[in-house]
Design goal:
With 97 residues, the chain is mainly alpha-helical. It is built from three helices and no strands. Helix 1 packs across helix 2 (49-76). The longest helix has 38 residues, at 3-40. The chain is flat, with a radius of gyration of 20 Å.
């Protein structure tokens, strides 16, 4: 392998790392935004369309995780149903149709 090929491989690997870090940072930004929205019960004024799309996608993922977890708990043990009823009250505050 010559020097040029080695450098191209290194650049490619580093580019992939940078892209992965960007995705992780965006997820963290969306979590902070979600926490801010829950705390203030409103959206910040200066959100871009991209921010709103990313937030929507992030929330869809979180809702899917919650639904999957609830289904797992329901299937595994019916004694945990009391907990499920209590936890649904907690999450009803941030559901806005």
């Amino acid at each position: 392998m010559d020097l040029e090929t080695s450098l191209m491989n290194t650049i490619s690997m580093l580019s992939a790392r940078v892209e992965e870090q960007r995705k992780q940072n965006r997820k963290r930004e969306m979590k902070l935004l979600m926490d801010e929205c829950l705390a203030t019960k409103q959206l910040p004024e200066m959100l871009t369309l991209e921010d709103l799309r990313d937030l929507s996608s992030f929330l869809d993922g979180k809702l899917k995780q919650l639904k999957d977890r609830l289904e797992t708990l329901k299937a595994s043990d019916t004694t945990q149903l009391d907990f499920l009823h209590l936890s649904s009250d907690v999450y009803s505050d941030f559901y806005m149709p």
